[in-house]
Amino acid sequence: MADPTLLDQIKDPKNRADPYPLFARLRESPVSRQHDGTYVAATHASVASLLYDPRISSETLPPSERPLTGNPFTDWIVKPIREHITDTHRPFIFRDPPDHDRLRAAVMHQFTRERVQAMRRRSDRLVADLLNRKCGAREIDIVDDLAYPLPVTVICELFGVPTEDEPKFHGWATQLATALEPDSLDDAEIRAKNSRCFDEISAYMADLIAEKRRHPADDMLSGLANEAPSGIGRMGDYDLIATSILMLVAGHETTVNLITNSMLALLRRPDALERLRAEPGWAPRVLEEVQRFDPPVQFRTRKALADIPIADVTIPEGAPVVLLFAAAGRDGCAYADPDRFHPDRHDNRHFGFGGSLHYCVGAPLARFETEAALAALAGRLRKPRLIADPPPYRPGAALRGPQHLRLAIAGID
User: Fold this and answer.
1) In the predicted model, what is the mean pLDDT of residues 116-128?
2) What is the pTM (predicted TM-score) of this model?
3) Fewer Cβ atoms within 10 Å of its own Cβ: the N or the C terminal residue of the chain?
């Protein structure tokens, strides 16, 4: 039996820089029960089986509970109404069919080929502009100078968020991303902060949606707010607010980590970085290997809707489940030489973008933003060198990536 405290050790910040030895120990049991009753799937086969199992639910968020204000009207009238609205209109990554399918279809209807291709070209220009700002510098922080501003600008432009409002999303996104961390579900302080943050961004999005209805433009939010595709219909206001928040937060939080995790892998392997400099077209292979080798989304939580027998274990109905994507990506039963960073491997069935019903809708954006960033960084940075290895990491274990990735450089071409 696997150590029932391994998941706690993975969540411990002291293991953030290298959780992979812990993942290896968890893989000794395809599915293991942790001391708190959580069941962890750690092998490629067990993760794949549960990811596609209809008895596994994504509706894992507990009922919302806003803090009391001391005002009787707010606490006894407004608070219950807001909590009911929040609970019945979750973002679609926390919804099961048929609600999930309906909301996802509405979003995918707006991800037109023309919009995606336009943002691909825009990403190339944004990367060039961001690096041009650092010309003459002898140090660069990949996170602050490129990995964060690139995807937040792309997703805000795609949704029609005014440029001057983009900085607001940094704090909102950082706070709301904690909802993906299992421990946050039992932390009253974090839940209270998330409630306040969600109310703030909801009020902002409600105003912006109203503006898009008065003055529609050629952006995704205008389309979602005004169009009613056949067979899908127009999204209701509360679902539209929740969906917009999801896209704006998830649309850049994970891509920040994907860019930085990729650059860290390359910087630790100078030959690979040099090859990418000589062959910019190699960037897609690098990206896909990072999604297996060191993915930005390390795991996701689910809930069992029924008793599920799997790998000599029965997950009981109602039990929390963790799908450990990062452990599955290093499974020797699925990959040859799994601990080797090898972008030229041919069989790379990773879980970096999830899978099944919840496959990442923003995967095309993440791919071309990261490809543009990696090709430009490899091609333009002269003699880049890590200032700290390992770098400092962001607090989260589920969304894992460097807080900063500072490099000493000889210059920028």
Assistant:
1) 92
2) 0.93
3) N
